[in-house]
Amino acid sequence: MTLLEDELEGHPLGGEEESDQAALRSPARLTAFRRGSGAITVPVLTTVIAFLAGGLIVLASGHDPVSTYTSIFTGTGLNWLFPWIGGAARATAAGNLQQTLLQATPLILVGLAVAFAFRAGMFNIGGQGQYTVGGIVAVWIGSSFAGMSPVLHIAFAIVAAGLAGAAWAGIAGVLKAVTGANEVISTIMLNWIAIWLGVYCFQLGGPLQNPKMPQTPVSSNVVAGAKLPVFWGSAQLQGLDVGIFIAFALAVVFAILIKRTRFGYEARAVGFNPEAARYAGMNVGRTWVRVMLVCGAFAGVAASLDILGWKFNLYTNDIQVSQVGFYGIAVALLGRNSASGTVAAAVLFGALLTGTSDRNIHLSIDPTLVQYLTFMIEGIIIMLVATDVITLRLLKGGRRIAVALRSRPAKAARPSGHGAS
Amino acid sequence: MTGSAPPILELKGITKKFGSVVANDRVDFDVAAGEVHALLGENGAGKSTLMSVLYGLYTPDEGEILVDGRPVEIHSPRTAIDAGIGMVHQHFMLVRVMTVAENIVLGQEPSRWGRLDLKAARARVHELSDRYGLAVDPDARIEDITVGAEQRVEILKALYRNARILVLDEPTAVLTAQEVRELTGVLNRLKRDGAAIVFISHKLREVLDVADRITVLRRGKRVASVPRAGATEQSLARLVVGRDVVLSAAKRHGTPAEPLLAVADLHVGDERRLEKVSGVSLTVRSGEIVAIAGVDGNGQRELVDAITGMRAPASGRVRVDGREIAGQGVRAATEAGIAHIAEDRHLRGLVLPFTLAENLALREYRSPQCSARGWMRLAHLRERAGRLLSEFDVRGGGPDSYAAALSGGNQQKVAVAREIASNPKVLVAHQPTRGLDVGAIEFVHGRLIEERDKGRAILLVSLEYEEVRALADRILVIYEGRIVGEFSPDVSEEELGMAMTGGQVSRSEAVV
């Protein structure tokens, strides 16, 4: 894993005022800055602060934060790692840890979808939409083509879901490259389109609704051959499937793409300084599109792993309440847009989601409070890690829109420099 | 004007350390009312640190500051302003979407009934700008005015806050020759009005033009304070660098051979499609430096962009060694043999958060040596960077250091190294020594002449009269997007200045 560590290497920027100023000019640079200065310390500290703050809220509500957190921790299954846990407790812990990792799997990939865009200077809010489109395609392919060879069927569904997510994100990339449309706005809009597209597909009488259950707004079930094999725990009890290895592998692909390939070099150059990238002969618009394609593919694959791994079908309600894409933003931010950081943050969020879900909560604790704790902790984390990044990003985006509107007549097919401010 | 008046501002024995680096070492400095006192030194000599101490941005480790003979504690810009100190920074601190008047009053807005009284603000701005000849339109937005006007706004901001001591940090770095003259006029008026002016610069000539007294800093120490009378460029250069400096590169005439760059009837528009280059034709031959001289904003940027592929021309031809590249983009230009030292190393020339190895690859990253089948050849990039850094004497970092961590002069050397290393037929050097100190300028100039003598065709675009004269084999003057004259390098400054500002040009005999 030296590659992943490599990516987190320090960023020895000196105290020179000039370079400080320059570095703060773009959020991508800012992230680069951050990743360097305290690559590990800051996110860990952030998490600790968030948990402490959450503890204070529990305390204020008249409950005992220690027992609450103990209960959450037990719920995550992370106590499975303690060798002294044995017997029935160990079996329960294993089941919980399987859940945690199942939750972490899509979060890794959606996190990478956000992180990759960040590295290229874009803010991909569209993880949710890309995930949704990927899910629709995965469930459609997974529930059709019965009798296909399992390996081929699974590969087909995953690849197709990835392509669907890529295409979906690619729309935002093309819009940005051709018209200068801000990707924050277009990906948010695409999220809604994707969600209602999904609802349309699986609603009563929808084109992909389960014909055997005409009164239920749900897709058909994934056929047995297209289900991902469970390697830990029982398939009947939603054990851990091999999807997580695909997520890990794609995290390694992410790190390699960023650090070792010409595409990654171009993407980072465009992210740090689009005008310098243009000066180096790079096609900035094309790079934006290609980066968004990769982002969408990550998110699309995320959905296919959920569908083929443990969901097996999609209710219209699932599509509407899913938050995976938005957790992905938190994951990427907390993980500082690096591969290893994203994986770590995804596991943390997976654990948080599992630890606070209804079935794992000890009876002595107020379940609503604990559930809201997840949101509170998530919110605090995002606030601490990201407020300035997001604000800067949006500010820059707003300014870019203003510039685009004002100079619309001069807009050539080739994107002209944005850095000229 | 010197010596007689008591100083309004005195800095005594200022010492400022950053870790083990001593940025200021017991520096004394003072300035009297009605005096321009220049602070001269190379990049990194400690000028900016000293002024940051004065402006309350840094707390000195030792020493004291006296205003009107009384010691003052300056621990923030606010207290500096209250003490009557005004600062015009090198990088302007203006809100680009706001108007001139709004920027000037920002933070001390005149108000009526709690509402911003823009009328009063505008009136006050008018009064100040009339009094000192600082022509600005109070209602123009900052993003629409020239750099020179932005600077005038910064000066007005300080005056609006009743500054009696005005510090100008490298004020001419961004100005055209014409604007520098205007600034000199403004400074003279301020002086007459009793202001004390600290003028920070690394340009010897300007300091001699403007200052009454000159203090030289070298490596954080004050090496001398001399009156202007008696000082010469040569004597100041020796103080600044600590050794004798060749001020104009020793230049033999080039031996031009076959034409490598041929531009014919080029028309280029700017972002708003206003024509900025109107029918430029020029030829640069192998072994020749052709300089484009002109006042900033006369189409130089658009011309350079069109030649280097950054911008598609409206019409016209650009040929590199016979190959047509007009409007085909940067990659086509690069492949045809064009290299481009960018005007602004932060905006274009470098990716500051990239390592030096990555930065040095920007021009050639697609070449088979740098990347193969989509993979970057990182080991090669690092090894290549090490070679270039030592060849171009870049100090302060290795292949894995970040470009942002280098000083401006070394950053520029990196940009120059990369472009020359791409082994171009045609090298377009746009303001290649902007913001550099004497030593670095000497290096870049020497290197450009060396590359000329290797047979490259060099198109130099510069606003610096001396640079143009020192390097060029031929000088073309650009005015309002047209080439209005061709001169040999021994042209007089007056004649060149006349042509650059659109005066009558007797088309002097073309020089071969």
Give a description of the structure.
The complex is a heterodimer of chains A (about 425) and B (about 500). Chain A has about 425 residues and is mainly alpha-helical. Chain A has one domain. Chain A is about 70% helix and about 0% strand. Chain A is built from 17 helices and 2 strands. In chain A, a hairpin with a 7-residue loop joins β1 and β2. In chain A, α10 crosses α11. The radius of gyration of chain A is 22 Å and the shape is globular. Chain B folds into 3 domains: about 240 residues, 3-Layer(aba) Sandwich (Rossmann fold), CATH 3.40.50; about 170 residues, Rossmann fold (3-Layer(aba) Sandwich), CATH 3.40.50; about 70 residues, no CATH class. Chain B is about 35% helix and about 25% strand. Chain B is built from 17 helices and 24 strands. In chain B, the strands form 6 sheets. Chain B has a 6-stranded mixed sheet with strand order 6-9-10-3-11-12, with helices on both faces. Chain B has a 6-stranded mixed sheet with strand order 18-21-22-15-23-24, with helices on both faces. In chain B, β23 and β24 form a beta hairpin. The longest helix of chain B has 16 residues. The C terminus of chain B is likely disordered. The chains are: A mainly alpha (about 425), B alpha/beta (about 500). At the A-B interface, α2, α3, α11 and α12 of A face α10, α11 and β20 of B.
